[in-house]
Amino acid sequence: MKLNEAFDAPQNKWVVKKLSDLDKDVLDEIWDMYEHTYKAIGLIVSDMKQMVSKYKISLLIDVDKDTLPDAFTIYKPTKYGAKMVLSGTDGSKPAKSALVKHKLQLLKKKGWYVEASHRLADIFMSSNINYVDDHEVVEKVLGKTVKWIGNGEYERKVGGSINVAKRLFGNPKS
Q1: Are 128 and 167 in contact (CB under 8 A)?
Q2: pTM of this structure
């Protein structure tokens, strides 16, 4: 296994890194992946500085021959476990595959959860990933009021202004 010296990690292995410990090139790559992934559905952080100040911990993987990560997940610890808040890829098939497989593994573990919409929610549903189908529990875990649609689906504002229909997938601690 070759070591990726850009962010001091073995290639093809997910690693946990503090965002504040990553160099500018790696942070720029994460920002590019974030913009690429979220631009069509709405950015919830406005720039890299805000991302680094708001979120602290990331999971990164390099699946190709360059020295930069190809997929990431940023998560934050909560009293209900680890909430995955942002993720993205460089757009390549190997990176997308690595990200989805990793999320599916984590979401089966107690204490890992994520709000998902769009294509990722469809993947989680078709993979039989647990989702929370209780309005009160969703609001308790999120610490936010949501507009309940039913069957685990709800709508809420993200990024201050974008209304999105989501589900809370995974296994938050009670």
Answers
A1: no
A2: 0.88
CATH classification number, 3-170, choose in 3.40.630, 2.40.50, 1.10.150, 1.20.58: 3.40.630
Share of the chain above pLDDT 90, in %: 65
**First-to-last C-alpha distance (Å) of the chain:** 39
The tally of CA atoms less than 13 A away on the side-chain side of residue 45 is: 19
Which has the closest alpha carbon to 92: 118, 133, 64, 73? 64
Report domain extents, the chain.
3-170
Q: How far is CA 30 from the centre of its chain?
A: 12
pLDDT tens digits, one per residue of 92-108 = 999 999 999 999 999 99
| pLDDT of the residue at 96 | 94
Q: Which two tokens stand for residue 36?
A: 């690429």
